[in-house]
Structure formats: C-alpha cells, structure tokens
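Throughout our pipeline, every protein is held as a single compact record rather than as scattered files. The remainder of this section carries one protein's record, kept here as part of the documentation.

===
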Amino acid sequence: MAYITHCIFDMDGLLLDTERVYTEVTQQILDKYADGVKFTWDVKSQLMGRSGNESAAMVVDTYKLPMSVKEYLDITAIIQEDLFPHAKLLPGVEKLIRHLHAHDIPIAVATSSTRSKFELKTSLNKEVFELFDVIICGDDAEIKNAKPSPDLFLAAQKHFGNPPAENCLVFEDAVNGVEAGLNAKMNVVWIPDENIKALTGDNDHGATLVINSMADFVPEAFSLPSYK
C-alpha cells in the first residue's frame, strides 16, 4: 500500500449516520407528493456526494415532483433541522480519528454539505470534530464544483500545505466521492453501504482499498501508526 502522511474524510454516510436521514426525509416527500413511490438505492447512489442543489434537482426531475428545486430544499430543510442534530458516529470512526490525532497525523473533513448543515449534523459530536485540522464544506468560496470533481479534496490538500497527492488518503462511501479522490490523484479507501455494494457488485471503481466498515481499517497497511 501507499505511504500515507495525511488523511481526508468525507462526512455523510462515512463519519456520521446521516444518509439514513436523507433517505427518510426524501421518502416523506415522495409519500406526500409522488403517491408514495419508493426512493430506491439506484437513484440514491447517484445523489450521494453531490451538492444539495444538484441532488435536489435530480430528485425533483426523477420523480416529477410538483415543486421547484428551491421549494424542495425549503421543505427538506425543515425536516432535517429536527433530525440532523441527533446524527451518530458510525462504527470505528471515533477510534480512528482519536488515534490519528494522537499521533499527529493531519486530518481533514471534506464534505459537500454546507457549513451550516455541517454545524447542525456535528452538534452531537463536536468534541470529535474539533480534532480535525481542516474542515472544508461545499459552500466554501474556493469550491467551484461538486464531486466527482476533485475540488473538495484539493482544497483540503492546499490547507494541509500541499503535501504530495500520493501521500494523501481519502475515505469515502459514495462512488462520486471515490471518483473525486481519484481525480485528485489521491489514494482512496471506499467504505460503501451494503446496498451500494449490491448494486455495483465486484466493481471497486478504482479504489485503493474496499472495506465494509471504518472498524475494519488497518492503519499500518498505509504506513500509519498502528493501534496499540
């Protein structure tokens, strides 16, 4: 495996169990405005990692919802405000983040979420997110394009002080995110939801490593300090 000095993490569905919230909120809207049609993973997988506006536009178009993208975002925001503050860390996340921080490995969050949504989603776990050296959000001025463009990861790299891309390790759960990491010329650990894995089969989308959970990550495989 590659020699890694810096780590960059996506957030939704990777660090936090927020993809479940997105699914629940979208299904509530489909129940009300689209005769209860099922929000399926073949559609959801295309939304993951994209900006809020892009995802909203795809949902409105795919399901022919009787509303504008702005109206859709306004409706979802109201529901999300109640659910996001309860988002929990996924298995293995806190252990790895605290481990890397304790060993002075620079770590960053690079999320498509807006800064305000980031604050909302992380409110239950502020202590853990305060350990990150860099936080890059989708509405930061330097971000021009959403994943699969590499802007988010390149911004994190810049804030790290521009270490070589081959020494950066991206953690992602979305195919769009894997592609973004590869477009940034970085190594990528892909941790897909089992539903996405079922859709993609044996296709690893070029990821350096594919694992089922953050709890399965072995730091020393990438020359990072091992767990004691």
About this structure: The CA atoms of residues 188 and 208 lie 5 Å apart.
